[in-house]
Amino acid sequence: MPKYRFSALDASNVKVMGEVEARDEGDLRRILLGRGVFPTRIKVLDEKKYSYRVKSHEVSDFCRQLSSMMASGITVVRAMEIVKERDNLPKLKAIFEQMHKNIQKGMALSDAMRAHGNAFPLLLVNMAASGETSGRLENVLSRMALHYDKEHKLEGKIKSALRYPKILAVATAAVVLIVFLLVLPEFFDMLEDMDKPLITRAVIGFSNFLMSGWYLILIVVLVLIVLVQYLLSLEKVRLAFDKSKLKMPVVGKLLRTIYTARFSRTLSSLYSSGVSMIKSLEITGTVVMNKYIESQFVELVKDVRNGESLSASVRKIDGFDNKLPNTIMIGEEAGRLDTMLVSTADSFEYEAEEATGALVALSEPIMIVVMGIIIMIVLLSVMLPMAGLYDTFGL
Question: Which of residues 50 and 26 earns the better pLDDT score?
């Protein structure tokens, strides 16, 4: 087994470090969570790294193909042989080819995926292992195809909704650069010997700065990007940043809704497939995609292991929608926790789509107002000197 070097935080928020052998990163996280510590940084010491991570729509297609072929009586080996011959990206094709070779040698599907490091989602690997143990691999893969299809659609809708504001922001920046670097300098050369109002002098100064110091701006932007990436790699900074995202106006509520939907969907998929609640929670904590929320799962798992109800334990998590623990409590009382979690995930995914649409609708007039202010400043800087010129000649 590969060896990992890790940094972690215990229940008292004290940093601990060490080295552990584990089958993969997910296995390492379960080992550390079992010790009551939360991993913040993990480094593989003696395992080949795989640079390609299979995307959600590719995972969905992969699971759907395997499930449909297995439902027709085709073996996993033959199904993987068909999958690897499909027209896939070169990196993805290489992964499928290696998986087919490993399965031919007698390796289980879950182990074949696990052998590729982080290429496949930890949730899928564990779900496949659960399906192999219970003899329901075909059903599990079908469920995973639906799971990742919904995840891909939600991600796609959010990206699509944010595309227009991004285009508008880029267009605004391009217009500003063209006006200040090409148009205004030609005009301001005619006003060189004239008394100019403050707004015109400010615009001329900004235009001259862009023309003469563009490389400084570029250097500063690159340094800031590298600095931000470095700071976010620090555990305390990342925890603080992920926590601050939840407190942001408008955006914070949207993120809480997305994290809640992701938690509900993942936990439902695991628990309904026969995975124990403790193990389901340990895995779910790693796929929420927020380090601050993830850091609270050490206490969550500990509370559930000590006999506390899931709804009461989830209520302590800072980062989920307040409706979640009440919904879980209803599911626990009715003995239908898995179906209630599915319904909750559907509800929150719909709310996430609606919240994203509202956010975009709010951003559009803001961007238009910003562009209008820039145009007004440019017009004033041009028109005021022209008005003074007309007065001078008595026009």
Answer: 26
